[in-house]
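Sequence in, structure out. Go.
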Amino acid sequence: MVLEIDQSAQLTVTGFTSNETDAINITNLAYVGLFAARLKKSDDPAAMVMLNNLKVHRAGTRIQAVINVPRDMAKETLSKTMDK
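Output:
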């Protein structure tokens, strides 16, 4: 897991599976989970910022999830979340 903050805030999580079939299945499950989360959290602006900026990629047995948000948007979203 790597967090980089400059003009954007980017959180990258990388994992590996023992075979490509498992990587495909996990990636597909992530897409389904993202779809369900977007439906469930559609009324939560902070959650939607994160969900709409989350991308999942697969290359062979490597799976990577990246949330990349402009720094100002990340700061504003975090501030609103902490105010609750």
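Check: The longest helix spans residues 20-40. The radius of gyration is 14 Å.
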